[in-house]
Amino acid sequence: MTAGSVHATGWLLALGVVVLAAVVAGVLNAIPVLGTIVGVFVSFAASVVAYHIIGRTWADLQPIATRDNGVIDDQPVV
Fold first, then answer.
1. How does pLDDT run across 23-71, given as a tens digit for each residue?
2. CB-based burial of residue 49 (10 Å sphere; 0-12 exposed, 13-18 middle, 19+ buried)?
3. 11 FRET partner, CA 20 to 30 A, in 46, 48, 58, 67?
4. Which residue from 1, 13, 21, 9 is spatially nearest to 51, judged by alpha carbons?
């Protein structure tokens, strides 16, 4: 796979997560108060997952050396 297709796949997957969460939140809004409260948490969780997918996709495409725990392998400034 080329870098462009990997990047597009990550973005489309993240978009799919957000759209699916919007549909779930919309269905939950049929319940007046409970649906609104749960919908906020569903939307927030979907945003976190989408940003994680985009971030991991970016990290996979960049030639930056990272440790196993995801920390950039640089010396501290101070």
1. 999 999 998 888 889 999 999 999 999 999 998 888 888 877 655 565 5
2. middle
3. 67
4. 13
